[in-house]
Design brief:
The chain has 279 residues and is an alpha+beta fold. The chain folds into two domains: 4-132, MutM-like, N-terminal (N-terminal domain of MutM-like DNA repair proteins), CATH 3.20.190.10; 150-274, Helicase, Ruva Protein, domain 3, CATH 1.10.8.50. The chain is 24% helix and 22% strand. The chain has helices spanning 4-18, 39-43, 150-157, 164-168, 179-189, 202-223; strands at residues 25-28, 50-56, 59-64, 70-75, 81-86, 100-105, 109-114, 121-126, 230-231, 261-266, 269-274. Mean pLDDT is 91; it is low at 224-238. It binds zinc ion. Residues 254, 256-257, 259, 274, 276-277 line the site of zinc ion.
Length: 279
């Protein structure tokens, strides 16, 4: 499943191709993905210029100029890929790919959305509607943004009995930290994933906040190098696998202390951790 680093990689890949270009056509191959797609609002984007490609949590935000300053929200779901291709204005339009559900024609750039399992999403809102949009309105801050720091994490953990790893993965507290990155951050900070959030000291919160940012930045850097004139999301998150210190290393020696890495299951998700050096 694409996590925040993969979505950010798609954003940075797509941005230079789309910003400044005018949308010529939107084509829907079906009426819905996870939810119905707003055909009329998408038609209204035609003729407008893309002015920014932003990201909020795991949503890509394609911002357009003109009345209402509309924004197309794109979510990759579990298997979605947003591909940007350089195309010739004069050649015949490229053929549909398998599982291609919508495309946006920006003249010499073609955006295709390919999603075998169709858990992805496409919606449109005005800039004013974004802060209260049902998909975005109740989200916590961005882990790489200015709001998330030691003090924030310390405040957010006070009085909370929930396991610290679960708290990190709660989008109402903090967005974009999935299972892999939560395990990795706990290992790097030397904190056991099942510790009650409220038991973390101020120093442990500081170490964990740093670890969260570092693991996400490294993952973004690892994903950000593989794009040319074609951008998308890897079929799986495998390209970051070489950077993982603890995830999926059950039974292997810990890279910090040599103890054997353990795996436990919490709420149906695997947690990897080391009893030797995580307190
Ligand atoms: Zn260890």
């Amino acid at each position: 499943m694409p996590e925040l680093p993969e979505v950010e990689t798609v954003r940075t890949g797509a941005e230079p191709h789309l910003v400044g270009r005018r949308l010529h056509a939107v084509e829907l191959m079906r009426e819905d993905l996870r939810w119905p797609m707003p055909r009329a609002a998408l038609e209204d984007l035609k003729g407008r210029r893309c002015v920014a490609v932003d990201r909020r949590s795991k949503y890509l935000l394609l911002r357009f100029d003109g009345p209402g300053q509309p924004v197309a929200l794109v979510h990759l779901g579990m298997t979605g890929r947003m591909l940007v291709e350089v195309t010739s204005r004069t050649a015949a339009r490229p053929e549909l790919r398998k599982h291609e559900h919508w495309r946006m024609d920006f003249g010499d750039r073609l955006v295709r959305f390919v999603d075998p399992r169709r858990f992805g999403a496409l919606d449109v809102a005005t800039t004013d509607e974004l802060p209260t949009h049902p998909l975005l309105g109740r989200l916590g801050p961005e882990p790489l943004g200015p709001e998330f720091d030691d003090a924030f994490l310390h405040r957010a953990t006070r009085g909370r009995k929930v396991a610290i790893k679960q708290l990190l993965m709660d989008a109402k507290v903090l967005v974009g930290v999935g299972n892999i990155y939560a395990s990795e951050a706990c290992w790097r900070a030397g904190v056991r994933p099942r510790r009650a959030a409220r038991s973390l000291t101020r120093a442990e919160c500081a170490a964990l906040a740093t670890a969260v940012r570092k693991v996400l930045r490294e993952a973004i850097a690892a994903g950000g190098t593989s794009f040319r004139d074609y951008v998308g999301v890897a079929e799986d998150a495998g390209y970051f696998a070489r950077e993982l210190r603890v995830y999926e290393r059950e039974g292997a020696p810990c890279r910090r202390c040599g103890a054997i890495v353990r795996r436990t299951t919490d709420a149906g998700r695997s947690t990897y951790w080391c009893a030797g050096c995580q307190r």
